[in-house]
TrEMBL record:
InterPro entries (alphabetical): L-PG_synthase/AglD (IPR022791)
Name the record gives this protein: Membrane protein
Native organism taxonomy: Bacteria, Pseudomonadati, Pseudomonadota, Alphaproteobacteria, Rhodobacterales
Main location: membrane
Annotated transmembrane regions: 21-42, 54-72, 142-162, 168-189, 210-232, 238-260, 267-287, 299-321
Pfam families hit by this protein: LPG_synthase_TM (PF03706)
Domain of life: Bacteria
Keyword annotations from UniProtKB, A to Z: Cell membrane, Membrane, Transmembrane, Transmembrane helix
Recorded topology in the membrane: Multi-pass membrane protein
Cell compartment(s), UniProt: Cell membrane
Amino acid sequence: MSSMHPLPPGATAPNRRLRDVAVLAGLFALVLAGLVGLAAATGWDETRAQIARLSGWQIVALLGLSLVNYLARGLRWHLFSRRLGLGTTLAADYRHFLGGFAMSVTPGRLGELVRMRWIGRETGAPFETTAPLMLVDRASDLAAMGLLLGTALAFSATGIAFGLPVTVLALSAAVIATRPALLAGIARLGHRVTGRFGRLFARLRRAARALSVFSSPGLMALAGLLGLAGWFAEGYAFHLLLAWMGADIGVAKAVAIFVFSGLAGGLTGAPGGVGGAEAAMIALLSLEGVGLDASIPATAIIRVTTLWFAIGIGLAVFPIAERYSLRHRHVVETD
């Protein structure tokens, strides 16, 4: 079986890895430069003092809550994989799911489609068969984050500007992505309007029809609970961080700001929401009366312990998943 995403002419795997690492480093450097600039403008002493207030066990607690998110969503991935009948084990599904985090900062997170390549190598399943797995997983994230944002806003004393539209947009996207007939209709309309990309839209229609296997209410309810638990864990970590820094704004408001910032960052189209999410978080904290001396370090720390921690895990698991899939592909081809 050949790779689903062959290298372009003249490119090599080491060159691609070097490029990906350079992109990651560049994005991290840009965000760090922006936060450093803000910290310098507000005074280094206050920023250092806020960071110094955190102990080692508190950092471990933040990372542990992020792990809750990854493990809950990884279990959801396994449930979806089983429903598709791919025959992968729990260990394999976690390997694919966590390894894909290495590509989280690609535009639209499209790089995470590498999971489909690994599954294809190990099971022989074509992209059209596995694509619904990625689609329903992303839709479940949007639904969970939309519901969590709406609930947090309902329980917070004050609202967030554009909070309701973003909630509605996230839930609408989730509904579209999990309704086979609606998604297939959009694909047909897209083909008629553009008159191009016939093969792409045809694949989208086939993937949409395959989504019908996820229509079980029990499955989607369990998937929804796992998504809610996972994203709430990271939102609660943000609440704890703010409280430890002496800027407690309440659980509901902290969760709302964390989730809204993540969704808003994604809407900018920037890889991983980098830049947009941080800007939204700092702005919303400022509106809640949290000074820049606390909002800047809090934003930096929560992004490191969530997004960049996930990328770190992905970078560690990625080569393992790649090597395993290549070995398994060799076995399949020679049997």
